[in-house]
Specification:
With about 550 residues, this protein is α/β, with parallel strands linked by helices. The protein has two domains: about 350 residues, Glycoside hydrolase, family 3, N-terminal domain (TIM Barrel); about 140 residues, Rossmann fold, CATH 3.40.50.1700. It has 17 helices and 16 strands. α8 links the parallel β8 and β9.
Length: about 550
């Protein structure tokens, strides 16, 4: 039974006498859990990524403790950089949707598999196969390739093919979040979302990318902690619904691979059921793997007790255990291959060609939705004012953007603001910006609205005499809230290559060629985007 459990770690290397090490030793050596997922650690409000060599060392330590080799997973939606530092910072999926190249998604799959295996990972909890057709979605958003089911399916298929293309780096790939988390407006980390779509609409939209993934032999499907009334009339998450996991996924769609739950410590599930009961219900519903139960020991005890009482059959457990063991064999896990070469870790990370790919996608993803008065490219960068909002005070977002702009416009007025600033403080800044010939406001938030007092601040800027170019590196739907912005630019990703791309686009150094992978209600339709050539540079003078 324990082979069906994946516990969470954070990539640190705890001392042998520490409580953390004792916890992991108990999970791996005594409980015999099936695997580990490495997540970010949050400290002082900041998300901290693990260091790749530390991760590899920790995983080797755990593999030495394991009687059956551990399968190690990661949410590498934008490459390993989503969880691990010093790896290539690939853009979010929606940037690939805006750039429009399926081949780039194939490359991302291949590069992610290479980075993952170099550090000891075998299971990619990606690609995101959700169709984000709800502008108020706070959790999927730019993690999706877009709102067009066919386009999302093409990117999903290409990613799967890319991840499987190198036999030297075999990995498992995962379509998520079944049966489709895109048309929801609640974050399942915080509460229980609801998909109101009819079964017919689901066939046309939500399920289409999953069908494509299954046709391309995707290894696993991850469940969503959300209610689906058109399939499951009970007000329970899909993760614990036999109608969703067995009826819809297994029987209707014909999926034969691994069914893995989304993280079981998320409130969308944990608010309804204690860890043990949630684990039992997920197995009953058709899940093979329990991801991140809050207490792995409790989950194991509960499922074993359910088998003893006859609530779950031994055959059902054996069926899932066999799928897990077969998956481990497919990625070449055995006692001789379970350890990674620590000296070779860096050889597959941050390769120049990968960095070039990431920057190219970020460049081509930049989409110009509005450009009244030809505000862009900026005519006078040194006189223009640049306002950068990371949303929170403690953040590194925007630092690279400021550096890149300062290189090109050393005398420009660059201001950082955040949602915790008071209205008087923001009003004072707005007053200081009154003499600027143009103002750029850039934000990194993926929320449907700006937090704190930032929304009134931006409204005040757009009502002033200077034209405002609103730039979003996160949520592309924010234009709905600021209709008076003269120009509107979407980058669809918060990674540093996208910061660089924004500056190059604002100043006309690159052509703007991106097209919207989503509709911005009342403002722009799917597929739209103003195309701008790069500025023609004047020929150097000849003396």
């Amino acid at each position: 039974m324990a082979q069906l459990v994946i516990g969470v770690a954070y990539g640190d290397v705890p001392g042998a006498q520490s409580k953390d090490y004792e916890k992991f030793r108990r999970w791996v050596r005594d409980l015999h859990i099936g695997g580990i997922i490495v997540n970010n650690r949050v400290q002082y409000g900041l998300v901290r990524n693990a260091e790749p060599h530390a991760v590899a060392l920790f995983l080797n330590q755990m593999q030495r403790l394991a009687k059956v080799p551990l399968i190690v997973g990661g949410d590498f939606e934008r490459g390993a950089s989503m969880r691990i530092s010093d790896t290539t910072r690939f853009p979010h999926s929606m940037a690939y949707g805006a750039a429009g190249s399926i081949e780039e998604s194939r490359y991302l799959g291949q590069a992610t598999a290479r980075e993952a295996r170099a550090m000891g990972f075998h299971w990619l909890f990606t690609p995101d196969s959700d169709v984000n057709n709800n502008p108020d979605n706070p959790v999927i958003n730019i993690r999706s390739y877009g709102e067009n089911p066919e386009a999302v399916g093409r990117h999903v298929a290409a990613y799967i093919e890319g991840a499987r293309s190198d036999p030297k780096n075999p990995v498992l790939v995962t379509a998520k979040h079944f049966p489709g988390h895109g048309d929801t407006n609640v974050d399942s980390h915080l509460d229980l979302p609801r998909l109101e779509a009819s079964r017919e609409r689901m066939d046309q939209v939500e399920l289409a990318p999953f069908r494509t993934a299954i046709e391309h032999k995707v290894d696993a499907v991850m469940t969503a902690h959300m209610t689906v009334p058109s399939v499951e009339p009970k007000d329970i998450p899909a993760t614990v619904s036999a109608r969703v996991l067995t009826g819809l996924l297994r029987e209707d769609l014909g999926f034969q691979g691994l069914v893995v739950t989304d993280a079981m410590d998320m409130a969308g599930l944990a608010k309804q059921f204690r860890s043990g009961e949630a684990s039992v219900r997920a197995i009953e519903a058709g899940a093979d793997v329990l991801l991140m139960p809050p207490d792995p020991a409790e989950a194991i005890r509960a499922v074993v007790a359910a088998v003893t009482r006859g609530r779950i059959s031994r055959q059902r457990i054996d069926q899932s255990a066999l799928r897990v063991l077969e998956a481990k064999m497919r990625v070449g896990l055995n006692s001789k291959t379970k350890l990674v070469d620590l000296d070779a870790v860096s050889n597959s990370l941050e390769l120049p060609e990968q960095a070039e790919h990431a920057q190219s996608v970020a460049d081509r993803a930049i989409t110009l939705v509005r450009n009244e008065g030809n505000v862009l490219p900026l005519a006078a960068p040194d006189q223009s004012c640049f306002v950068i909002s990371s949303g929170i005070r403690i953040s590194s977002f925007g630092q690279r953007m400021a550096e890149e702009y300062r290189k090109r416009a050393p005398h420009a007025n660059i201001v950082f603001v955040d949602g915790g600033m008071s209205s008087p403080a923001l009003d004072a800044i707005a007053g200081e910006l009154g003499t600027c010939p143009a103002i750029v406001f850039a934000t990194f938030t993926t929320n449907p609205t700006l937090n704190g007092n930032l929304a009134p601040f931006v409204e005040k800027l757009t009502e002033g005499p200077a034209p405002v170019a609103f730039v979003t590196l996160g949520n592309p739907y924010l234009l709905r809230n600021f209709p008076k912005a003269a120009a509107y630019v979407a980058a669809f990703s918060t990674v540093t290559p996208s910061e660089v791309s924004v500056i190059k686009a604002l100043l006309g150094e690159i052509p703007i060629t991106g097209k919207l992978p989503v509709t911005i209600p009342d403002f722009a339709q799917y597929g739209e985007g103003i195309q701008l050539p790069a500025k023609t540079r004047s020929a150097p003078s000849v003396n």
